[in-house]
Protein backbone atom coordinates (compact mmCIF):
# COMPACT_ATOMS: atom_id res chain seq x y z
CA UNK A 1 0.00 0.00 0.00
CA UNK A 2 2.68 2.51 1.01
CA UNK A 3 4.82 1.60 -2.01
CA UNK A 4 1.88 2.03 -4.35
CA UNK A 5 1.05 5.44 -2.84
CA UNK A 6 4.64 6.49 -3.52
CA UNK A 7 4.21 5.36 -7.13
CA UNK A 8 1.00 7.34 -7.31
CA UNK A 9 2.81 10.37 -5.94
CA UNK A 10 5.33 10.05 -8.74
CA UNK A 11 2.52 9.71 -11.25
CA UNK A 12 0.79 12.78 -9.89
CA UNK A 13 3.80 15.07 -9.97
CA UNK A 14 3.06 15.79 -13.62
CA UNK A 15 -0.73 16.05 -13.43
CA UNK A 16 -0.83 19.29 -15.36
CA UNK A 17 -2.30 20.62 -18.55
CA UNK A 18 -0.32 22.96 -20.78
CA UNK A 19 -1.16 26.63 -20.30
CA UNK A 20 -1.27 29.07 -23.20
CA UNK A 21 2.31 29.97 -24.22
CA UNK A 22 3.70 32.63 -21.86
CA UNK A 23 5.34 35.82 -23.01
CA UNK A 24 9.05 35.52 -23.67
CA UNK A 25 11.12 35.47 -20.52
CA UNK A 26 8.37 34.34 -18.18
CA UNK A 27 8.75 31.13 -16.24
CA UNK A 28 6.60 28.91 -14.12
CA UNK A 29 6.93 31.14 -11.09
CA UNK A 30 5.74 34.14 -13.06
CA UNK A 31 2.68 32.17 -14.14
CA UNK A 32 1.92 31.23 -10.55
CA UNK A 33 2.54 27.52 -11.15
CA UNK A 34 4.83 26.79 -8.20
CA UNK A 35 2.47 25.12 -5.76
CA UNK A 36 2.59 23.05 -2.59
CA UNK A 37 4.11 19.57 -2.52
CA UNK A 38 2.13 16.38 -2.79
CA UNK A 39 2.47 14.80 0.68
CA UNK A 40 5.05 12.05 0.87
CA UNK A 41 6.54 12.69 -2.58
CA UNK A 42 8.51 15.91 -2.42
CA UNK A 43 7.11 16.79 -5.83
CA UNK A 44 5.47 20.09 -6.59
CA UNK A 45 2.71 19.58 -9.17
CA UNK A 46 1.75 22.27 -11.63
CA UNK A 47 -1.65 23.85 -11.32
CA UNK A 48 -4.26 21.88 -13.30
CA UNK A 49 -5.34 24.80 -15.43
CA UNK A 50 -6.38 24.03 -18.96
CA UNK A 51 -9.20 23.70 -21.41
CA UNK A 52 -12.49 21.99 -20.79
CA UNK A 53 -11.99 18.30 -21.57
CA UNK A 54 -8.40 18.19 -22.69
CA UNK A 55 -5.42 20.22 -23.82
CA UNK A 56 -2.23 19.70 -25.86
CA UNK A 57 0.38 17.73 -23.92
CA UNK A 58 3.10 16.51 -26.20
CA UNK A 59 5.01 19.76 -26.67
CA UNK A 60 3.83 20.40 -30.23
CA UNK A 61 0.93 22.28 -31.79
CA UNK A 62 -2.21 20.28 -31.26
CA UNK A 63 -3.60 18.34 -34.20
CA UNK A 64 -6.52 17.11 -32.14
CA UNK A 65 -10.03 17.73 -33.36
CA UNK A 66 -12.04 20.12 -31.16
CA UNK A 67 -14.30 18.59 -28.51
CA UNK A 68 -17.86 17.70 -29.54
CA UNK A 69 -20.44 20.52 -29.51
CA UNK A 70 -21.62 21.20 -26.00
CA UNK A 71 -18.39 19.90 -24.49
CA UNK A 72 -16.47 22.91 -25.70
CA UNK A 73 -13.99 24.87 -23.67
CA UNK A 74 -16.60 26.19 -21.29
CA UNK A 75 -15.54 29.72 -20.42
CA UNK A 76 -11.92 28.94 -21.33
CA UNK A 77 -11.59 32.10 -23.36
CA UNK A 78 -12.87 34.06 -20.38
CA UNK A 79 -9.98 33.26 -18.00
CA UNK A 80 -11.91 30.34 -16.58
CA UNK A 81 -10.93 26.70 -16.56
CA UNK A 82 -13.23 23.75 -16.23
CA UNK A 83 -10.27 21.58 -15.27
CA UNK A 84 -9.51 23.91 -12.38
CA UNK A 85 -12.88 23.15 -10.79
CA UNK A 86 -12.93 19.51 -11.87
CA UNK A 87 -9.64 18.70 -10.10
CA UNK A 88 -10.13 20.87 -7.02
CA UNK A 89 -11.41 18.29 -4.54
CA UNK A 90 -8.73 15.84 -5.75
CA UNK A 91 -6.15 18.22 -4.29
CA UNK A 92 -7.67 17.92 -0.83
CA UNK A 93 -8.10 14.15 -1.02
CA UNK A 94 -4.39 13.93 -1.85
CA UNK A 95 -3.63 16.21 1.10
CA UNK A 96 -2.53 19.30 -0.82
CA UNK A 97 -4.37 21.77 1.40
CA UNK A 98 -2.35 24.85 0.48
CA UNK A 99 -3.08 24.49 -3.22
CA UNK A 100 -6.78 23.83 -2.56
CA UNK A 101 -6.91 27.11 -0.65
CA UNK A 102 -5.13 28.99 -3.43
CA UNK A 103 -7.40 27.64 -6.16
CA UNK A 104 -10.50 28.57 -4.14
CA UNK A 105 -9.12 32.09 -3.91
CA UNK A 106 -8.48 32.18 -7.66
CA UNK A 107 -12.02 31.00 -8.40
CA UNK A 108 -13.57 33.69 -6.21
CA UNK A 109 -11.75 36.40 -8.14
CA UNK A 110 -12.87 35.77 -11.70
CA UNK A 111 -15.76 33.44 -12.46
CA UNK A 112 -18.42 34.84 -14.76
CA UNK A 113 -21.22 32.71 -16.18
CA UNK A 114 -22.90 35.59 -18.05
CA UNK A 115 -21.26 34.82 -21.37
CA UNK A 116 -22.41 33.88 -24.85
CA UNK A 117 -21.30 30.23 -24.78
CA UNK A 118 -23.20 27.07 -25.74
CA UNK A 119 -22.62 24.52 -22.99
CA UNK A 120 -23.57 20.90 -22.42
CA UNK A 121 -26.22 20.84 -19.69
CA UNK A 122 -25.00 17.41 -18.54
CA UNK A 123 -21.28 18.24 -18.48
CA UNK A 124 -21.77 21.64 -16.85
CA UNK A 125 -23.81 20.01 -14.11
CA UNK A 126 -21.50 17.12 -13.25
CA UNK A 127 -18.25 19.07 -13.60
CA UNK A 128 -18.99 22.69 -12.67
CA UNK A 129 -22.00 22.44 -10.35
CA UNK A 130 -20.81 19.17 -8.83
CA UNK A 131 -17.22 20.34 -8.48
CA UNK A 132 -18.21 23.63 -6.85
CA UNK A 133 -20.65 21.96 -4.43
CA UNK A 134 -18.04 19.42 -3.37
CA UNK A 135 -15.36 22.08 -2.91
CA UNK A 136 -17.83 24.22 -0.96
CA UNK A 137 -18.63 21.41 1.46
CA UNK A 138 -14.94 20.52 1.87
CA UNK A 139 -13.74 24.12 2.30
CA UNK A 140 -13.74 24.15 6.10
CA UNK A 141 -11.88 20.83 6.25
CA UNK A 142 -9.30 22.33 3.91
CA UNK A 143 -8.72 25.26 6.26
CA UNK A 144 -10.49 27.83 4.11
CA UNK A 145 -11.98 30.63 6.20
CA UNK A 146 -15.72 30.17 5.73
CA UNK A 147 -18.37 32.81 6.20
CA UNK A 148 -20.96 32.83 8.96
CA UNK A 149 -23.79 30.54 8.00
CA UNK A 150 -21.66 27.96 6.17
CA UNK A 151 -22.47 25.38 4.80
CA UNK A 152 -25.80 27.09 4.05
CA UNK A 153 -23.96 29.97 2.37
CA UNK A 154 -20.59 30.69 0.84
CA UNK A 155 -19.00 31.97 -2.37
CA UNK A 156 -18.56 28.53 -3.96
CA UNK A 157 -22.18 27.66 -3.17
CA UNK A 158 -23.32 30.90 -4.79
CA UNK A 159 -21.23 30.06 -7.88
CA UNK A 160 -22.77 26.59 -8.04
CA UNK A 161 -26.26 28.07 -7.74
CA UNK A 162 -25.53 30.63 -10.46
CA UNK A 163 -24.23 27.93 -12.80
CA UNK A 164 -27.24 25.71 -12.11
CA UNK A 165 -29.69 28.54 -12.77
CA UNK A 166 -28.10 28.95 -16.20
CA UNK A 167 -29.16 25.35 -16.91
CA UNK A 168 -32.79 25.68 -15.79
CA UNK A 169 -34.13 26.99 -19.15
CA UNK A 170 -33.19 23.63 -20.67
CA UNK A 171 -35.81 21.92 -18.49
CA UNK A 172 -38.67 24.04 -19.82
CA UNK A 173 -40.08 21.38 -22.14
CA UNK A 174 -43.52 19.72 -22.33
CA UNK A 175 -42.09 16.53 -20.85
CA UNK A 176 -39.79 18.06 -18.23
CA UNK A 177 -36.85 16.32 -19.89
CA UNK A 178 -34.08 18.85 -20.64
CA UNK A 179 -32.46 19.87 -23.88
CA UNK A 180 -28.85 18.74 -24.15
CA UNK A 181 -27.36 22.17 -24.78
CA UNK A 182 -28.07 25.63 -23.42
CA UNK A 183 -26.57 29.05 -24.10
CA UNK A 184 -25.36 30.51 -20.81
CA UNK A 185 -26.47 34.00 -21.79
CA UNK A 186 -29.57 33.48 -23.92
CA UNK A 187 -30.99 30.13 -22.78
CA UNK A 188 -32.00 27.44 -25.28
CA UNK A 189 -31.11 28.46 -28.82
CA UNK A 190 -33.94 28.58 -31.40
CA UNK A 191 -33.71 25.45 -33.50
CA UNK A 192 -31.86 23.50 -30.81
CA UNK A 193 -32.22 19.76 -31.38
CA UNK A 194 -34.76 18.19 -29.01
CA UNK A 195 -32.94 14.84 -29.06
CA UNK A 196 -31.08 14.15 -25.81
CA UNK A 197 -29.37 11.03 -24.50
CA UNK A 198 -30.91 9.26 -21.52
CA UNK A 199 -27.97 10.05 -19.23
CA UNK A 200 -28.26 13.71 -20.22
CA UNK A 201 -31.79 13.68 -18.80
CA UNK A 202 -31.37 11.53 -15.69
CA UNK A 203 -28.08 12.78 -14.21
CA UNK A 204 -29.09 15.77 -12.09
CA UNK A 205 -30.64 14.58 -8.83
CA UNK A 206 -27.39 14.36 -6.82
CA UNK A 207 -26.22 17.91 -7.57
CA UNK A 208 -29.63 19.58 -7.87
CA UNK A 209 -31.07 18.02 -4.68
CA UNK A 210 -27.93 19.02 -2.79
CA UNK A 211 -28.29 22.55 -4.11
CA UNK A 212 -31.96 22.71 -3.11
CA UNK A 213 -31.27 21.47 0.41
CA UNK A 214 -28.39 23.92 0.93
CA UNK A 215 -30.07 27.00 -0.56
CA UNK A 216 -33.69 26.32 0.42
CA UNK A 217 -34.86 26.72 -3.19
CA UNK A 218 -36.75 23.56 -4.24
CA UNK A 219 -36.73 24.35 -7.98
CA UNK A 220 -33.51 22.41 -8.64
CA UNK A 221 -34.60 19.17 -7.01
CA UNK A 222 -38.07 19.54 -8.54
CA UNK A 223 -36.82 19.70 -12.14
CA UNK A 224 -34.37 16.84 -11.56
CA UNK A 225 -37.12 14.62 -10.13
CA UNK A 226 -39.50 15.48 -12.95
CA UNK A 227 -36.88 14.48 -15.53
CA UNK A 228 -36.21 11.16 -13.75
CA UNK A 229 -39.90 10.34 -13.60
CA UNK A 230 -40.38 11.22 -17.28
CA UNK A 231 -37.79 8.64 -18.27
CA UNK A 232 -39.43 6.09 -15.97
CA UNK A 233 -42.83 6.81 -17.49
CA UNK A 234 -41.47 6.25 -21.01
CA UNK A 235 -39.69 2.92 -20.42
CA UNK A 236 -40.69 0.07 -22.71
CA UNK A 237 -43.18 -2.66 -21.87
CA UNK A 238 -40.29 -4.98 -21.01
CA UNK A 239 -38.84 -2.39 -18.62
CA UNK A 240 -35.94 -0.95 -20.65
CA UNK A 241 -34.99 2.57 -21.76
CA UNK A 242 -33.31 3.50 -25.01
CA UNK A 243 -30.30 5.66 -25.74
CA UNK A 244 -31.75 8.93 -27.11
CA UNK A 245 -35.20 10.46 -26.80
CA UNK A 246 -37.01 13.50 -28.18
CA UNK A 247 -37.66 15.71 -25.14
CA UNK A 248 -40.63 17.41 -26.83
CA UNK A 249 -42.55 14.36 -28.05
CA UNK A 250 -41.09 11.69 -25.71
CA UNK A 251 -40.45 9.45 -28.72
CA UNK A 252 -37.37 7.24 -28.58
CA UNK A 253 -34.96 8.09 -31.39
CA UNK A 254 -32.22 5.56 -30.56
CA UNK A 255 -33.72 2.36 -29.21
CA UNK A 256 -30.60 0.49 -28.10
CA UNK A 257 -30.85 -0.46 -24.42
CA UNK A 258 -27.83 -1.20 -22.25
CA UNK A 259 -25.82 0.03 -19.27
CA UNK A 260 -23.15 1.99 -21.15
CA UNK A 261 -22.66 5.23 -23.04
CA UNK A 262 -25.73 7.45 -23.26
CA UNK A 263 -27.56 5.64 -20.46
CA UNK A 264 -25.02 4.83 -17.72
CA UNK A 265 -25.29 7.64 -15.17
CA UNK A 266 -29.11 7.56 -15.23
CA UNK A 267 -28.98 4.21 -13.45
CA UNK A 268 -26.12 5.44 -11.28
CA UNK A 269 -28.12 8.46 -10.10
CA UNK A 270 -31.19 6.41 -9.21
CA UNK A 271 -29.04 4.47 -6.73
CA UNK A 272 -26.97 7.39 -5.49
CA UNK A 273 -30.02 9.66 -5.29
CA UNK A 274 -31.76 6.98 -3.21
CA UNK A 275 -28.80 6.79 -0.83
CA UNK A 276 -28.25 10.55 -0.62
CA UNK A 277 -31.92 11.37 -0.06
CA UNK A 278 -32.98 8.09 1.60
CA UNK A 279 -35.60 7.86 -1.14
CA UNK A 280 -37.43 4.55 -1.48
CA UNK A 281 -39.07 5.49 -4.78
CA UNK A 282 -35.76 6.07 -6.56
CA UNK A 283 -34.37 2.76 -5.31
CA UNK A 284 -37.53 0.93 -6.38
CA UNK A 285 -37.13 2.36 -9.89
CA UNK A 286 -33.57 1.09 -10.10
CA UNK A 287 -34.42 -2.37 -8.78
CA UNK A 288 -37.10 -2.73 -11.45
CA UNK A 289 -34.62 -1.65 -14.13
CA UNK A 290 -32.07 -4.05 -12.66
CA UNK A 291 -34.47 -6.98 -13.17
CA UNK A 292 -35.00 -6.07 -16.82
CA UNK A 293 -31.26 -5.54 -17.38
CA UNK A 294 -30.50 -9.00 -15.98
CA UNK A 295 -33.31 -10.61 -17.98
CA UNK A 296 -32.49 -9.11 -21.38
CA UNK A 297 -28.91 -7.79 -21.50
CA UNK A 298 -26.85 -10.07 -19.24
CA UNK A 299 -25.00 -13.01 -20.80
CA UNK A 300 -22.26 -14.90 -18.91
CA UNK A 301 -21.65 -11.91 -16.64
CA UNK A 302 -21.25 -9.59 -19.64
CA UNK A 303 -23.86 -6.95 -20.51
CA UNK A 304 -24.80 -6.53 -24.18
CA UNK A 305 -26.90 -3.97 -26.04
CA UNK A 306 -30.44 -5.00 -26.99
CA UNK A 307 -33.48 -3.54 -28.72
CA UNK A 308 -35.50 -1.80 -25.99
CA UNK A 309 -38.91 -3.12 -27.09
CA UNK A 310 -38.00 -6.67 -28.16
CA UNK A 311 -34.93 -7.51 -26.08
CA UNK A 312 -33.06 -8.86 -29.11
CA UNK A 313 -29.27 -8.34 -29.15
CA UNK A 314 -28.24 -5.34 -31.25
CA UNK A 315 -24.55 -4.95 -30.30
CA UNK A 316 -22.51 -7.73 -28.62
CA UNK A 317 -19.91 -5.25 -27.39
CA UNK A 318 -18.46 -4.15 -24.05
CA UNK A 319 -17.89 -0.41 -23.75
CA UNK A 320 -15.28 0.88 -21.33
CA UNK A 321 -17.88 3.24 -19.84
CA UNK A 322 -19.82 0.19 -18.65
CA UNK A 323 -17.08 -0.66 -16.16
CA UNK A 324 -18.81 1.48 -13.53
CA UNK A 325 -21.51 -1.20 -13.20
CA UNK A 326 -19.74 -3.54 -10.70
CA UNK A 327 -19.21 -0.59 -8.39
CA UNK A 328 -22.88 0.31 -8.65
CA UNK A 329 -23.85 -3.30 -7.93
CA UNK A 330 -21.74 -3.18 -4.77
CA UNK A 331 -23.73 -0.18 -3.55
CA UNK A 332 -26.91 -2.25 -3.51
CA UNK A 333 -25.14 -5.19 -1.86
CA UNK A 334 -24.92 -7.42 -4.95
CA UNK A 335 -21.22 -8.08 -4.44
CA UNK A 336 -20.97 -11.62 -5.91
CA UNK A 337 -22.40 -10.61 -9.29
CA UNK A 338 -20.32 -7.45 -9.19
CA UNK A 339 -17.07 -9.38 -8.73
CA UNK A 340 -17.84 -11.81 -11.56
CA UNK A 341 -18.50 -8.98 -14.00
CA UNK A 342 -15.47 -7.05 -12.73
CA UNK A 343 -13.21 -10.03 -13.43
CA UNK A 344 -14.51 -10.17 -17.02
CA UNK A 345 -13.60 -6.54 -17.48
CA UNK A 346 -10.22 -7.04 -15.82
CA UNK A 347 -9.30 -9.71 -18.40
CA UNK A 348 -9.77 -7.07 -21.11
CA UNK A 349 -7.51 -4.68 -19.22
CA UNK A 350 -4.78 -7.33 -18.93
CA UNK A 351 -5.07 -8.06 -22.66
CA UNK A 352 -4.34 -4.46 -23.70
CA UNK A 353 -2.96 -2.57 -20.70
CA UNK A 354 -6.16 -0.52 -20.60
CA UNK A 355 -9.82 -0.70 -21.62
CA UNK A 356 -10.56 0.03 -25.28
CA UNK A 357 -13.63 2.18 -25.84
CA UNK A 358 -15.39 -0.77 -27.54
CA UNK A 359 -14.54 -4.47 -27.18
CA UNK A 360 -16.20 -7.12 -29.35
CA UNK A 361 -17.08 -9.88 -26.88
CA UNK A 362 -17.51 -12.82 -29.32
CA UNK A 363 -14.30 -11.95 -31.20
CA UNK A 364 -12.34 -11.02 -28.07
CA UNK A 365 -10.80 -7.94 -29.69
CA UNK A 366 -11.19 -4.22 -30.21
CA UNK A 367 -13.73 -2.60 -32.53
CA UNK A 368 -12.50 -0.59 -35.51
CA UNK A 369 -11.96 3.10 -34.69
CA UNK A 370 -12.74 2.44 -31.02
CA UNK A 371 -9.32 1.17 -29.94
CA UNK A 372 -8.37 4.11 -27.72
CA UNK A 373 -8.17 4.51 -23.94
CA UNK A 374 -8.47 8.13 -22.72
CA UNK A 375 -7.43 7.11 -19.17
CA UNK A 376 -11.03 6.57 -18.11
CA UNK A 377 -11.75 5.88 -14.40
CA UNK A 378 -14.68 3.45 -14.47
CA UNK A 379 -12.87 0.13 -13.86
CA UNK A 380 -10.72 1.72 -11.16
CA UNK A 381 -13.85 3.24 -9.62
CA UNK A 382 -15.43 -0.21 -9.39
CA UNK A 383 -12.23 -1.62 -7.90
CA UNK A 384 -12.30 1.05 -5.19
CA UNK A 385 -15.92 0.31 -4.24
CA UNK A 386 -15.47 -3.46 -4.34
CA UNK A 387 -12.27 -3.35 -2.30
CA UNK A 388 -14.12 -1.44 0.41
CA UNK A 389 -16.73 -4.20 0.39
CA UNK A 390 -14.54 -7.31 0.06
CA UNK A 391 -10.85 -6.51 0.72
CA UNK A 392 -10.11 -8.89 -2.17
CA UNK A 393 -6.41 -8.42 -3.12
CA UNK A 394 -7.28 -8.94 -6.81
CA UNK A 395 -8.69 -5.42 -6.74
CA UNK A 396 -5.36 -4.01 -5.56
CA UNK A 397 -3.70 -5.88 -8.42
CA UNK A 398 -5.89 -3.96 -10.86
CA UNK A 399 -4.83 -0.74 -9.17
CA UNK A 400 -1.18 -1.72 -9.48
CA UNK A 401 -1.65 -2.60 -13.15
CA UNK A 402 -3.39 0.73 -13.77
CA UNK A 403 -0.58 2.74 -12.20
CA UNK A 404 2.05 0.81 -14.17
CA UNK A 405 0.15 1.12 -17.46
CA UNK A 406 -0.40 4.85 -17.09
CA UNK A 407 3.22 5.41 -16.05
CA UNK A 408 4.76 3.32 -18.82
CA UNK A 409 2.43 4.14 -21.69
CA UNK A 410 0.91 7.59 -21.08
CA UNK A 411 3.51 9.63 -19.23
CA UNK A 412 4.89 12.57 -21.24
CA UNK A 413 6.73 15.72 -20.31
CA UNK A 414 3.60 17.79 -19.67
CA UNK A 415 1.27 15.23 -18.09
CA UNK A 416 -0.40 11.94 -19.07
CA UNK A 417 -1.66 11.57 -22.61
CA UNK A 418 -4.72 9.80 -23.93
CA UNK A 419 -3.84 6.45 -25.53
CA UNK A 420 -5.00 6.72 -29.11
CA UNK A 421 -4.64 3.00 -29.91
CA UNK A 422 -4.18 0.27 -27.30
CA UNK A 423 -2.85 -2.14 -29.94
CA UNK A 424 0.38 -0.22 -30.47
CA UNK A 425 0.13 2.30 -27.59
CA UNK A 426 0.22 5.38 -29.83
CA UNK A 427 -0.68 8.54 -27.91
CA UNK A 428 -3.05 11.41 -28.61
CA UNK A 429 -2.08 15.01 -27.88
CA UNK A 430 -4.54 15.67 -25.04
CA UNK A 431 -5.35 14.84 -21.44
CA UNK A 432 -8.97 14.74 -20.30
CA UNK A 433 -9.98 16.59 -17.15
CA UNK A 434 -11.69 13.45 -15.82
CA UNK A 435 -8.22 11.91 -15.47
CA UNK A 436 -7.55 14.41 -12.67
CA UNK A 437 -11.07 14.51 -11.28
CA UNK A 438 -11.74 10.76 -11.28
CA UNK A 439 -8.97 8.37 -12.35
CA UNK A 440 -6.30 9.81 -10.08
CA UNK A 441 -8.76 10.16 -7.20
CA UNK A 442 -10.11 6.63 -7.31
CA UNK A 443 -6.61 5.18 -7.64
CA UNK A 444 -5.44 7.11 -4.60
CA UNK A 445 -8.50 6.11 -2.56
CA UNK A 446 -8.02 2.45 -3.52
CA UNK A 447 -4.60 2.48 -1.86
CA UNK A 448 -5.33 4.89 1.02
CA UNK A 449 -7.65 3.14 3.51
CA UNK A 450 -7.17 5.91 6.08
CA UNK A 451 -8.29 8.76 3.82
CA UNK A 452 -10.96 10.97 5.35
CA UNK A 453 -13.29 9.97 2.50
CA UNK A 454 -13.40 6.47 4.02
CA UNK A 455 -14.40 7.77 7.46
CA UNK A 456 -16.62 5.28 9.28
CA UNK A 457 -18.34 7.88 11.44
CA UNK A 458 -15.99 7.51 14.38
CA UNK A 459 -14.86 11.12 13.94
CA UNK A 460 -16.88 14.08 12.78
CA UNK A 461 -17.11 17.85 12.92
CA UNK A 462 -19.81 19.88 14.66
CA UNK A 463 -20.68 23.21 13.08
CA UNK A 464 -23.14 25.89 14.10
CA UNK A 465 -25.47 27.03 11.35
CA UNK A 466 -28.37 29.50 11.33
CA UNK A 467 -30.57 26.46 11.91
CA UNK A 468 -28.81 24.85 14.85
CA UNK A 469 -26.11 22.28 15.40
CA UNK A 470 -24.91 20.25 12.41
CA UNK A 471 -22.71 17.17 12.02
CA UNK A 472 -20.37 17.10 9.02
CA UNK A 473 -17.47 15.01 7.67
CA UNK A 474 -18.66 11.82 9.34
CA UNK A 475 -18.26 9.77 6.15
CA UNK A 476 -20.73 8.12 3.81
CA UNK A 477 -19.77 10.49 0.99
CA UNK A 478 -21.75 10.07 -2.22
CA UNK A 479 -19.69 10.61 -5.37
CA UNK A 480 -21.35 12.25 -8.32
CA UNK A 481 -20.60 10.73 -11.70
CA UNK A 482 -17.52 12.97 -12.02
CA UNK A 483 -16.20 11.67 -8.65
CA UNK A 484 -17.03 14.84 -6.73
CA UNK A 485 -17.88 13.73 -3.16
CA UNK A 486 -21.02 15.09 -1.52
CA UNK A 487 -21.40 14.85 2.27
CA UNK A 488 -24.96 13.55 2.79
CA UNK A 489 -25.10 15.02 6.28
CA UNK A 490 -24.86 18.51 4.79
CA UNK A 491 -28.33 18.12 3.31
CA UNK A 492 -29.72 18.19 6.86
CA UNK A 493 -27.88 21.36 7.89
CA UNK A 494 -30.02 24.01 6.21
CA UNK A 495 -33.58 22.70 6.36
CA UNK A 496 -35.61 25.55 7.75
CA UNK A 497 -37.91 28.10 6.22
CA UNK A 498 -35.99 31.14 5.18
CA UNK A 499 -38.32 33.53 6.96
CA UNK A 500 -37.51 31.83 10.28
CA UNK A 501 -33.77 32.10 9.79
CA UNK A 502 -31.76 33.75 12.52
CA UNK A 503 -30.48 37.23 11.84
CA UNK A 504 -26.78 37.13 10.97
CA UNK A 505 -25.92 39.50 13.78
CA UNK A 506 -27.80 37.33 16.25
CA UNK A 507 -26.03 34.24 14.97
CA UNK A 508 -22.62 35.83 15.33
CA UNK A 509 -23.46 36.98 18.84
CA UNK A 510 -24.60 33.49 19.80
CA UNK A 511 -21.65 31.78 18.13
CA UNK A 512 -18.95 33.87 19.75
CA UNK A 513 -20.57 33.75 23.18
CA UNK A 514 -20.94 29.94 23.32
CA UNK A 515 -20.07 28.38 26.65
CA UNK A 516 -19.70 24.79 27.69
CA UNK A 517 -23.04 24.90 29.45
CA UNK A 518 -24.75 26.07 26.30
CA UNK A 519 -26.48 23.48 24.14
CA UNK A 520 -28.02 23.73 20.71
CA UNK A 521 -30.68 21.22 19.78
CA UNK A 522 -32.13 20.22 16.47
CA UNK A 523 -35.47 18.59 15.88
CA UNK A 524 -35.51 15.27 14.07
CA UNK A 525 -35.67 15.88 10.33
CA UNK A 526 -38.73 14.90 8.37
CA UNK A 527 -38.53 11.73 6.31
CA UNK A 528 -38.45 13.59 3.03
CA UNK A 529 -38.16 17.35 3.08
CA UNK A 530 -37.68 19.31 -0.07
CA UNK A 531 -36.26 22.80 0.16
CA UNK A 532 -38.64 25.26 1.71
CA UNK A 533 -41.33 22.63 2.00
CA UNK A 534 -39.40 20.66 4.61
CA UNK A 535 -40.66 20.50 8.15
CA UNK A 536 -39.01 23.03 10.38
CA UNK A 537 -36.21 21.76 12.61
CA UNK A 538 -36.34 22.90 16.17
CA UNK A 539 -35.11 26.40 16.84
CA UNK A 540 -31.71 26.41 18.43
CA UNK A 541 -31.81 27.20 22.12
CA UNK A 542 -29.61 29.64 23.95
CA UNK A 543 -29.36 30.70 27.53
CA UNK A 544 -28.13 34.23 27.18
CA UNK A 545 -29.36 36.48 29.96
CA UNK A 546 -31.84 33.84 31.13
CA UNK A 547 -33.66 34.04 27.78
CA UNK A 548 -34.31 30.92 25.69
CA UNK A 549 -34.97 30.83 21.95
CA UNK A 550 -38.01 28.55 21.55
CA UNK A 551 -36.27 25.75 23.43
CA UNK A 552 -37.98 22.36 23.17
CA UNK A 553 -38.02 19.55 25.67
CA UNK A 554 -37.28 16.69 23.29
CA UNK A 555 -33.70 17.25 22.27
CA UNK A 556 -31.64 14.31 21.08
CA UNK A 557 -27.99 13.44 21.43
CA UNK A 558 -25.34 14.57 18.98
CA UNK A 559 -24.99 11.11 17.45
CA UNK A 560 -28.63 10.23 16.98
CA UNK A 561 -29.87 9.97 13.41
CA UNK A 562 -32.95 11.47 11.77
CA UNK A 563 -35.82 9.01 11.68
CA UNK A 564 -36.42 7.59 8.22
CA UNK A 565 -39.23 5.70 6.52
CA UNK A 566 -36.74 3.90 4.30
CA UNK A 567 -37.53 0.58 5.99
CA UNK A 568 -36.81 -1.83 3.14
CA UNK A 569 -33.17 -0.82 2.92
CA UNK A 570 -30.51 0.16 5.38
CA UNK A 571 -27.95 2.74 4.34
CA UNK A 572 -24.60 2.03 5.96
CA UNK A 573 -21.38 3.76 4.94
CA UNK A 574 -22.69 4.54 1.49
CA UNK A 575 -24.06 1.05 0.83
CA UNK A 576 -27.66 -0.10 0.69
CA UNK A 577 -28.41 -3.65 1.79
CA UNK A 578 -31.68 -5.36 1.02
CA UNK A 579 -33.62 -6.94 3.88
CA UNK A 580 -33.18 -10.43 2.48
CA UNK A 581 -29.41 -10.28 2.20
From TrEMBL:
GO terms for cellular component: endoplasmic reticulum quality control compartment; membrane. GO terms for biological process: carbohydrate metabolic process; endoplasmic reticulum mannose trimming; positive regulation of retrograde protein transport, ER to cytosol; response to unfolded protein. Residues 525-538 have a biased composition (Basic and acidic residues). Pfam families: Glyco_hydro_47. InterPro entries: 6hp_glycosidase-like_sf (IPR012341), EDEM1/2/3 (IPR044674), Glyco_hydro_47 (IPR001382), Seven-hairpin_glycosidases (IPR036026). Residues 1-16 form the signal peptide. Its cofactor is Ca(2+). The active site is at 123 (proton donor), 264, 357 (proton donor), 378. Gene3D superfamilies: 1.50.10.10. It is found in: Endoplasmic reticulum. Residues 26-46, 525-562 are annotated as: Disordered. Keywords: Calcium, Endoplasmic reticulum, Glycoprotein, Glycosidase, Hydrolase, Metal-binding, Signal, Unfolded protein response. Ca(2+) binds at residue 481. GO terms for molecular function: calcium ion binding; mannosyl-oligosaccharide 1,2-alpha-mannosidase activity. Its EC number is 3.2.1.-. PANTHER family: ER DEGRADATION-ENHANCING ALPHA-MANNOSIDASE-LIKE PROTEIN 2. Belongs to the glycosyl hydrolase 47 family. Involved in the endoplasmic reticulum-associated degradation (ERAD) pathway that targets misfolded glycoproteins for degradation in an N-glycan-dependent manner. May initiate ERAD by promoting the first mannose trimming step of ERAD substrates, from Man9GlcNAc2 to Man8GlcNAc2. Seems to recognize and bind to exposed hydrophobic regions in target proteins. This is alpha-1,2-Mannosidase. The gene is Edem2.
Amino acid sequence: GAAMLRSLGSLLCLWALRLPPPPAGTGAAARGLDVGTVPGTGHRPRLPWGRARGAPLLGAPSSVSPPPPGLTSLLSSHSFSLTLIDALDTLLILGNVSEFQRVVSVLQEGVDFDIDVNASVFETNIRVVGGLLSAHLLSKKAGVEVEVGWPCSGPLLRMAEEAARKLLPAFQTPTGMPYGTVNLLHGVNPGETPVTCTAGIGTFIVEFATLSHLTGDPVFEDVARKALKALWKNRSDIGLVGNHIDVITAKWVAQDAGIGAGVDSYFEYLVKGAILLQDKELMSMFLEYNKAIKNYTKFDDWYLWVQMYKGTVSMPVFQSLEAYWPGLQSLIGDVQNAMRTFLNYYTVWKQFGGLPEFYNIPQGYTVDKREGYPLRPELIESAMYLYRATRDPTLLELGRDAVESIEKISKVDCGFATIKDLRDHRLDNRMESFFLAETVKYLYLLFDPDNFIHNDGSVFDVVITPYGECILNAGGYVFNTEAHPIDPAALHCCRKRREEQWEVEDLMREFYSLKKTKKFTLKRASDHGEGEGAKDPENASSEKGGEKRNSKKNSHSLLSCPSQSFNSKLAILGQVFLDNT
